[in-house]
Amino acid sequence: MNVLVVGVGGHAKAVIATLQAAGHAIVGCLDDRAGAEGTAVLGVPVVGPTSRLAEHDGEAVLAIGANAVRQRLAAAHPAARWATVVHPTAVVHESVRLGAGAVVFAGAVLQPDVTVGAHAIVNTGATVDHDGRLGDFVHVAPGCHLSGGVTLGEGAFLGVGAACLPGVTVGAWTTVGGGGVVVRDLPPHVTAVGVPARSLETPQ
Fold first, then answer.
1. Which domain covers residue 29, as residue numbers?
2. Residues 73 and 161 in one domain
3. Of 8, 73, 85, 130, which residue is least crowded by CB atoms under 10 Å?
4. Would you say 20 and 3 are in contact if contact means Cβ atoms under 8 Å apart?
């Protein structure tokens, strides 16, 4: 497939590398910053601002690590065709369901009956065990480990090396700091850190 990459930062580099490893053709990158057009990311040219996504008749991927930004861009382009991208070294069981625009990076493992929402990210070397539920716009950072039956609400973010014990739920748009261990359910819209992970504020 011919894929347009939306974004030019460090996360976009990882997405481009994943697309290349999977054998997909990349037609260019989009970015809204002044002066970006005409530059390149890993040899892929920046061909214009994100508004040009509306002109693209192929597939595209949101190569931006920030969950809220991916959500905003997806909402702004409801007619876009979103590519689902899986690195060839990832281990993804045939029963796994991947949403439109989801990206699974090198070395990730998705066990049976995992569901990954639209525009979700399972980053390098992360593992999601059986029956996991990852909502839309989730980001599971490198080296995270989710035990069986874990649920991550929409927009949840797990920092590098975070872990979740079996069956816990992390609420929508909640952040778990790097290395945090979630041993009980976390509510929506909080930041939790530590071992065990504890909320730093009162939930909204």
1. 2-82
2. no
3. 130
4. no
In this predicted model, what pLDDT tens digit does every residue of 34-51 receive, in sequence order?
888 889 999 999 999 999
Residue 122 and residue 202 share a domain: yes
**Binding-site positions:** 65, 139, 178
**Average pLDDT over the chain, rounded to whole?**
95
Both 9 and 65 in a single domain? yes
One of 11, 130, 145, 189 is an active-site residue; which one? 130
pLDDT in tens, 85-138: 999 999 999 999 999 999 999 999 999 999 999 999 999 999 999 999 999 999
Q: Is-catalytic flag, 130?
A: yes
Contacts of range 151-157, beta carbons closer than 8 Å, 24 or more positions apart? 153/188, 154/117, 155/67, 155/68, 155/71, 156/67, 157/67
